[in-house]
Write a structure and sequence with these properties.
Blueprint (H helix, E strand, L loop, with lengths): L1 E10 L8 E8 L10 E8 L13 E5 L7 E3 L3 E2 L15 E9 L1
Antiparallel strand pairs: 1-2, 1-7, 2-3, 3-4, 5-7, 6-7
């Protein structure tokens, strides 16, 4: 696994199924993306077998433009602030990233 870092903003309200992160690549890892490339990250919910609270949903992150059969974005957390801190939609761009796993 290699580190992958983007700088940008979240768009959409928390728990909105269309919520996504748009940013530019700062650390591409083995993704073949270039520093400065614009990308989008979304959270794709798994289909639960039982209804549950939105905070209990599971899923995976999807990196737009990267085939899931080749690359998996294992985590996506804030890198320039406290992990678990609120993601802002305005103001200065934030650094977010995680581990990129090559299958």
């Amino acid at each position: 696994m290699s580190e992958f870092i983007l700088k940008g903003h979240w768009h959409g309200e928390l728990y909105d199924p269309d919520r996504h992160f748009q940013g530019s690549v700062e650390v591409p890892g083995p993704s073949a993306l270039q520093v400065g490339d614009r990308v989008t990250v979304t959270f794709v919910e798994d289909r639960p077998t039982v209804h549950c609270n939105p905070t209990q949903l599971h899923g995976h992150f999807s990196l737009d433009g990267m085939p899931r059969e080749d690359f998996v974005l294992v985590s996506f957390v804030r890198k320039d602030g406290e992990v678990g801190a609120d993601a802002t939609q305005d103001g200065d761009a934030q650094r977010w990233g995680g581990d990129l796993f090559i299958r």
